[in-house]
């Protein structure tokens, strides 16, 4: 009887530990897929419909604020301009937020290993690239958030949502306010 109790307790602890560590494992797999430029492996870890909706909503809200600030609320052409821009924005987001689009964006971004390595003012003298620091942790039982290490909410974040007990998928990107305003 004692062996069964110990075995059950060890099993429960093992299940709880693997469930707790599962978003870190998913994050590592996403990172590996991006490093390998493997769109198919990336697609397994991203909920693209939810991600598209998240990005679209944030960009539309930013665009609406920008139009309201420049055109004013009493301008009748502002609504027309916003509806046209919204339709174009939807198609752009649908194209960009796809497995191939995300891999292409990473290929051209500063986080890419093949990115331009010209010396910056803050770059170390020995040519080594400054590595970005990130903090990752649970924001709820089914939500896992990855932020820049300084923890500034204005810098944006990646949000993974639980899919099953051990499965996690990138479902939202909180776009930095400075980037969304462009």
Question: Outline of this structure?
Answer:
The protein has 182 residues and is of the alpha+beta class. The protein has helices at 2-36, 39-43, 48-71, 76-96, 99-108, 177-180; strands spanning 134-140, 143-148, 157-163, 167-174. It has a four-stranded antiparallel sheet with strand order 1-2-3-4.
**Which stretches of 5+ consecutive residues score pLDDT under 50?**
109-128
Strand content: 15-25%
**What's the helix-strand series?**
HHHHHEEEEH
Strands side by side in the biggest sheet? 1-2-3-4
Structural class: alpha+beta
DSSP summary: helix tally: 6
Count of DSSP strands: 4
Largest beta-sheet details: 4 strands, antiparallel
Description:
With 182 residues, this protein is α+β, with helices and mostly antiparallel strands. 54% of the residues lie in helices and 15% in strands. Strands 1-2-3-4 form a four-stranded antiparallel beta sheet. Helix 3 packs antiparallel against helix 4 (76-96).
Tag the structure with descriptive keywords:
182 residues; 15% strand; four-stranded antiparallel sheet; alpha+beta; single chain
Layout of secondary structure:
Blueprint lengths: L1 H35 L2 H5 L4 H24 L4 H21 L2 H10 L25 E7 L2 E6 L8 E7 L3 E8 L2 H4 L2
Antiparallel strand pairs: 1-2, 2-3, 3-4
